[in-house]
Amino acid sequence: MEDSRKLGPQAFLLTWNPDKWNWVDFSQSVLATESDGVIGRKWSTGVRNSGIHAGDMVFLLRQGKKGRGIVGSGRATDFTGDSVPGDNIIHTDPHWNGSGATANYVDVIWDRLLEPDDRLPIEELEKDFPEQQWAPNASGTQVRPELVAELESRWSRHVASAGLREGGQGHVASSERRKAIENAAQGWLMQHYRDEGWEVRDTRYAGPYDAVATKNDQTLYLEAKGTQGGGEAVFVTRGEVEHARANPGDCIIGIWSGMRFADDGQVDPRGGETTIMPFEPDTGNLSALQYRWEWAAADE
């Protein structure tokens, strides 16, 4: 009997055992991703030396004796910018253990990281996805293709339940209103595609896009933005931009501008204007509003 779960994009498990390697600024990295930042880092792929391409999903599987489970998600990328779609982006560098040997690595943009206590536990993963190997011998294990979409959704729901993303669009007076605007814009865009016959999954809490819409063999990545302003410009994160660049033609942005609140404090569904268009960030003007300074790497 054919599995009813639809095939999704490629995804891989990258492992981290803090008993063997201490990520010294992990807590700071968690805080950065909670604030819609991203963390770039190369990561070992174990014996895997091919098969990972720019844009593939990756999950950070924490191992060891003090809390096993997924603590992060992101995307494979190429920091050099020299690759083209379809290229294998695994490369070799000196081994992380300092042995003098070499190891295989892939560049990763981490979109969401969680503290170990907030992990998606290995026991739940084994229960929900018994077909997957959750005790890999090394980093770089591929997630079974038929499980990718469901795992992505499960992870997004887990992050949402932990209440780890506030986010928001535009300058509004309170976090409650920011959240109301974000939720209304998300709900509008997802419903639009459902009304058009698409199957839509909410992924806003754990990745660089808010939802995934599928119909037949086509997949679209949806980004929703809501603002009380005119909507001529909206804030986008580095992760959102890099994902759109890695998936040209497959990314959509929906902007609900001129949003207003009714007397009961809820977003007025009749207010403002909505626009849906391809998300092609390099066709507009991108302004850098924030930088990450690695002072320890500076010359002394």
Structure, explained:
The protein has 300 residues and is of the alpha+beta class. It folds into two domains: 11-161, ph1033 like fold; 175-283, 3-Layer(aba) Sandwich (Trna Endonuclease, Chain: A, domain 1), CATH 3.40.1350. 20% of the residues lie in helices and 26% in strands. The chain has five helices and 13 strands. Strand 5 (91-94) and strand 6 (102-113) form a beta hairpin. The protein starts with 10 loop residues before the first strand and ends in a 22-residue tail after the last strand. Residues 1-8 and 164-174 have low confidence and may be disordered.
Sum up the structure in keywords.
disordered N terminus, 2 domains, 5-stranded mixed sheet, alpha+beta, 8-stranded mixed sheet, ph1033 like fold, Trna Endonuclease, Chain: A, domain 1, 20% helix
Topology (elements, then pairings):
Elements: E1 11-16, H1 26-34, E2 39-44, E3 57-62, E4 69-77, E5 91-94, E6 102-113, E7 120-121, H2 122-128, E8 141-142, H3 148-161, H4 175-195, E9 199-202, E10 211-215, E11 218-226, H5 238-246, E12 251-257, E13 273-278
Parallel strand pairs: 1-3, 11-12
Antiparallel strand pairs: 1-8, 2-6, 3-4, 4-6, 4-7, 5-6, 9-10, 10-11, 12-13
> What does the radius of gyration come to?
20 Å
Structural class: alpha+beta
What's the CATH topology label of the largest domain? Answer: ph1033 like fold
Order of helices and strands: EHEEEEEEHEHHEEEHEE
Helix content: 10-25%
Total count of helical runs of at least 4 residues: 5
CATH class division of the largest domain: Alpha Beta
Major sheet characteristics? 8 strands, mixed
Distance between the termini: 64 Å
> Any idea what the shape is?
globular
Low-confidence stretches: 1-8, 164-174
Strand content: 25-35%
CATH architecture of the largest domain: Roll
Mean pLDDT: 84
The total domain count is: 2
How many E strands?
13
